[in-house]
Amino acid sequence: MGRLHAEEMILNMGPQHPSTHGVLRLKLRTDGEIVSHIEPVIGYLHRSFEKHAENLEYQQVTPFCGRCDYLAAMGSEHGYAMAVEKMMGIELPERVEYLRVIFAELQRIASHLVAVGTFGLDVGAITPFIYCFRERELILDLFEMASGARLLYNYIWIGGLAHDIPPGFVEKTYEFLDNFDTRVAEYNQILTGNKIFIERAADIGVMTPEVAINYGVTGPSLRASGVNIDIRRTQPYSIYDRFDFDVPLGEGAQGTVGDSWDRYYVRVREMEESARIIRQALDQLPVEGDVKSAIPRRIRPPKGEIYSRSENARGELGYYVVSNGKNVPLRVKMRSPAFSNLSVINEIGQGWMISDVIAILGSLDIVLGEIDR
Amino acid sequence: MTEQEIYADLTAEFGDKIIEFVVEETLNPTVVVKADSLADICTYLKDTEALQFDSLMNLAGHDSDGVSDLSVIYHFHSTFLDHYITLKIFTPREDSTVDSVANIYRTADWHEREAWDLYGIKFNGHPDLKRILLEEDWEGHPLKKDYVAAEFYRGMRIAKVK
Fold first, then answer.
1. Residue at B162 is within a domain
2. What is the ipTM of this complex?
3. CATH number of the domain residue B88 falls in
4. Long-range contacts of A174-182 (CB under 8 A, 24+ apart)
5. Domain presence at residue B41
6. pTM across the whole model
7. Low pLDDT (below 50) residues in chain B
8. Nearest chain A alpha carbon to B134
9. Residue B146 maps to a domain
10. Which residue of A7, A367, B46, B151 is most buried, as measured by CB atoms within 10 A?
């Protein structure tokens, strides 16, 4: 039987499409069910963060950072605060550093829970999504206790925190951790080892280490390809060098190293590691210390520039900040991890079926707010 | 290698294409190079055994005052040797002459499109240089300090920024 030749067709996926995780449009060139080229069209959520930042005082930029990556707002605020603190040479009280790590890691778990849950959703598993959101709610409760907000916190300020944690917070966090350790086993039972799920994710969209590094892919998506780069380890910031934790790497347990399943499973294991870090940080948390004592009265970093990196839930979050000595930054550029992570999709998605492209996109875990800024 | 050693290495290789080494006022020591030889320098950074800069972490456009030249800043990292370097180039406000490095570092593809979109910096040899965050028919490049927004976009009034 001869091969039936069909004409290539352009298929628009999005901007309104539940599996594009926001307002993303993918222009697919397809030959039947096979995708031969993917062109992501972005910018639908562009809110000119960088333009706004040039018209606001340093401390006023903080809430905007959280609004970029709205699923990991604590991490975004942390990265920005660190960049300005380094420029000004601010020494933070120990208590602030510990609390920041606790919040950043709780946020990583919350963000990975969305990633893991929606990835399941993308390939047809609806139940795990509900399970993941059940635990995420508990983390959001903790954030609400501390900052008053559930999604966008404005909690990590330049030089400290907006306010100290309320009484009972530490106990509640321990309670959450005790509960969470058993939950990960549940996800593994219901999703990780599920045969249909493995069929949909294993060997799909394999990303080699060379491709990943060349495209600037960072975070769990890079580590799934077996590259051992975690900024918390390679260039430790805050107090990450004090904690004992592993950096999970993709091993190709169900197929090839760097496939969609690996990208999923690295996130599951990272949640366990984050829980370990939080437990250690809670154990060591100093009782004394004023979280506002190091907040400068006037924020005017000396003339100069910095590129400061941190490991956010999605990867390398960099802030390039230029100061001219005034109270308003001259330039704030956010190097968003999801921006570079999405750019690789044409490379790894070519030659797969349309339904596989959805799985690959889900495994990259993008947040459009951060891509479009 | 330290940034100082990398600078010495680049000067030995490229001579007067390397303009200066900036350590003051920056927390990332920066080598300022000529824009027209950027692609050669990047190829050298990537392929030389002793350097192996395989990762372009970040690429940012910058306009310091709305009058003088625009600049582009490149932050590199070597994942094998774990060292860092920052390159900076200056380019005229109109008729930019920056080499594209998108074929050397694929990260640069979208980042250069962003710099074109927001700063109007043209990258020679880019595979598909078009706007990325704004619409194709948007007027002007908003992050330039002398940018004045048009009054209307497709019949919609554009809010004034102070």
1. no
2. 0.89
3. 3.30.460.80
4. A174/A279, A174/A282, A176/A138, A176/A139, A176/A142, A177/A275, A177/A278, A177/A279, A177/A282, A179/A135, A179/A138, A180/A109, A180/A135, A180/A271, A180/A275, A181/A272, A181/A275
5. yes
6. 0.88
7. none
8. A43
9. yes
10. A367
